[in-house]
Amino acid sequence: MLMKDVDFAVYRKNTPTQDGYFGTYGGAFIPPQLVKEFENIYTAYQTICQSSKFISELRRIRKEFQGRPTPTYHCERLSQSIGNCQIYLKREDLNHTGAHKLNHCMGEGLLAKYMGKKKIIAETGAGQHGVALATAAAFFGLKCDVYMGEVDIAKQAPNVARMKLLGARVIPVSHGLKTLKEAVDAAFEGYLNEYEESIYCIGSVVGPHPFPLMVRDFQSVVGIEAREQFQEMTGNLPDTIVACVGGGSNAAGILTPFLNDPVELIGVEPLGAGTEVGQHAASLTYGSEGIMHGFRSIMLQDEKGEPSPVYSIASGLDYPSVGPEHAYLRDLGRVRYTTATDEEAVDAFFTLSRLEGIIPALESAHAVAYAIKLASERPSGSILVNCSGRGDKDLDYVLEHYGDRL
Asked: Is-catalytic flag, 129?
């Protein structure tokens, strides 16, 4: 199927299918004892997403607790330093807890309360999902376990402290590469032991059905707001929208509300330190179809189908697969996926900080880096970047490794 064959005006109503497929991607490859539980989660979500009471409560939480809507901001000095193409940011770094993650965590927390759960379980890489879920747990009065690789714990010490302050139990993961993939493995194992009393709140548009659907829907508030704000600011839609892609939640949030518009959509994967295996985490660019963590998508894998080692300077992007909807949108040709290296992301990190007074997360800096590259190639036009998080969490790491640039 090609893009011209898809009616994106009705895409959201029909995608994914009832059994969670985006084309050939998605599904739910889970242990038999979890099948009924995931059916219950899907049924509960389908019920509450049509409930005016639930929708009204979520809107109240977003306004009064999260501080939504977050603004869309024109980077005038950055744009002028490049040329005539204008760069804008959707400021998810101003969302409560400092990133887009709270958008789906508050929705998942509300779902957990509706289902009568006592605990929420999660994994985290950069720590933003863990902080957001710990925040949701505190808000709703739930217990919270967060699994985190030891490498990421060392890199993201401020977020680890925030999770503990919020009352969460941070569980170190010491096997394998000790990063995000291993944290997901460990969190899922923990969930298997107590699924009747808990819910596993996945941190991106990945995992078994219905999580890619739910997280996309909860995150779509980003694109819905940005679309209205950009039109109010300029009278037009942006020419191009750019977002970083690891698992892909922030990208799904800002891109999918624009699917039916005449707007170029771009996802930026982490090329890390190079193209060799273990030097990057660019799943869509270098991966192939496979199954991991309960869903089928494009993944980086060895000849045996096992996940390959991955790396990115951004802890939230070093995941060996990608959300199934991103794989589908790539195949349809509606979203173009490209890459940015560690060095390009660090350059963008410093550039945005110094020209606009905005310190972006290293994840977001990948999208900023590609937007700067695009703007330098264009005589005019507009680019909207999802600034998915703030860079406070990355300061210690950046200062340790790039302190000579101060």
From this structure: no
| Domain containing residue 181: CATH number | 3.40.50.1100
pLDDT digits (tens, 9 = 90+) for 283-326: 999 999 999 999 999 999 999 999 999 999 998 999 999 999 99
153: domain range?
29-62+101-215
Q: Using an 8 Å Cβ cutoff, are 242 and 251 in contact?
A: no
> How does residue 184 score in pLDDT terms, banded at 50, 70 and 90?
confident
Question: What are the tens digits of pLDDT across the range 124-157?
Answer: 987 889 999 999 999 999 999 999 999 989 988 8
How far apart (Å, rounded) are the C-alpha atoms in residues 214 and 143? 21
pLDDT attached to residue 1 = 55
171 and 148 Cβ atoms separated by less than 8 Å:
yes
Given 75, 105, 144, 387, the catalytic residue: 75
Classify residue 41 as exposed, middle or buried by CB count within 10 Å of its CB (0-12, 13-18, 19+): buried
pLDDT at 376: 98
- Nearest residue to 99 via CA among 315, 358, 366, 388: 388
SS3 of 358, please? coil
**Active-site residue, from 74, 96, 100, 280:** 100
Please give the C-alpha separations between residue 131 and each of 137, 170, 246, 316, in angstroms, as whole numbers.
10, 10, 18, 13
Which residues face 267 on adjacent strands?
243, 337
pLDDT at residue 335, as a whole number:
98
Q: Are the C-beta atoms of 292 and 41 separated by less than 8 Å?
A: no
| Residue 132 placed within a domain | yes
Q: What is the tally of structural domains in the chain?
A: 2
Catalytic residue status for 75? yes
- Whether 267 and 395 map to the same domain: the answer is yes
Start-to-end CA span in the chain (Å): 50
CA distances from 371 to 123, 220, 225 (A): 30, 21, 20
Which pairing describes strands 382-387 and 86-91: parallel, antiparallel, or unpaired?
parallel
Contact (Cβ atoms closer than 8 angstroms) between residue 191 and residue 208 = no
Separation of alpha carbons 215 and 228, rounded Å: 21
